[in-house]
Amino acid sequence: MSRTSVYVEQISPRSTPEQVSEGIARLLHPFDLARMADGKTVLIKPNLSGESGPANTDPRVIYGVVRAFEQAGASALVGDGSIIGVDTMSVMREIGLIDALKGTRAEIVDLKTGRYVETRVRRGRCAKQVALAEAASAADLIVSVAKMKTHDATAVSLCMKNLSGLMHEYDMLHFHHVNVSECIVDLVATVKPALNIVDGLMAMDTFGAGPVEMGCVIAGTDPVAVDATASRAMGVDPAGIYAGTLAESHIKRAHERGLGEMKDIEVVGDLPSAQFAPPPASLNEISIPDGIEIIDGDPCPACIAMLATVLQKSQISNNKLGNTVILVGPNAPPPEKTKGRTIIIGNCLHRLQSTTQGSVFVIGCPPNATYDVLPVLEA
Length: 379
Prior knowledge:
- Helices cover 31% and strands 24% of the residues.
- The strands form three sheets. Strands 1, 2, 3, 4, 7, 8, 9, 10 and 11 form a nine-stranded mixed sheet that branches. A four-stranded parallel sheet has the order 12-13-14-15, covered by helices on one side.
- Helix 8 packs across helix 9.
- It starts with a strand and ends with a helix.
């Protein structure tokens, strides 16, 4: 049995759009795009999260991918649905994507503004059906063009997690409410991207240095192998992500479900090596503002990282916080009577929802930092 191949092309972050396009053409040459895509409609799905600029797929990389597919005879759509509450077209304008694609024939699509198609998830373990954007359902091929970055809920955000932007916002949030790692695997099994590309020109070390110059783009037909390879470039063991918890690695889960290879991978090209800061592993590693007390019930790393993100984003004053008690982790005991409010976080503490009077229960595994926990904290 032949080994799974993942290809790496070194491209300087200071390259011009044409230089990046030339690098992308070299990277994609082994895939015979004319055979893959000639006469077909290809949805190129970047990561347009709407967070800081470097957290989005570089427009030069998107331009290079569009050029490569157009030269192969394909009709290209470039579309995404940004994170909940964010206007996709505003993100496209802000990062310069619309201007970057002016020299192409690509149609730019805000997936949030079109229809959604209820799509059955075959043998889904968490999701039984998802509402996919009509453009994704109608496309002949889907190409995931992700950003290389770390993330609180899944430790890494690469090609598989990038596919969540194809869904309705309701499903994006529902994935967090059930089990985001397992749901991502269900989505990958449903969408089955034809090609997976990771933009590593400037990666995002979310918990550490911020933007990191990696100077590479990674590609392959196997989403599991591509994500595992990009993870290793960031110094993250794909099999060890949140190991032994309900939030365990979506990369490992996808491998175990037969969706791709995680171990026996032939890397063609020079893969850079860095050590990105891991998500905080204990509550002692996060900054807790005055006015908040956290009852430690041995939470999994995903909930710890989520809390770190929430507390970093919160602009609330200490005076307004008052006395806020947060319970997190499956072993958290019911709190003694407090003068303030109590917030119970995560599905593993569902048992306390009805026994802790006056509390607010936040569902999720892990809950979404921005749309589940932050509004409760700042209410």
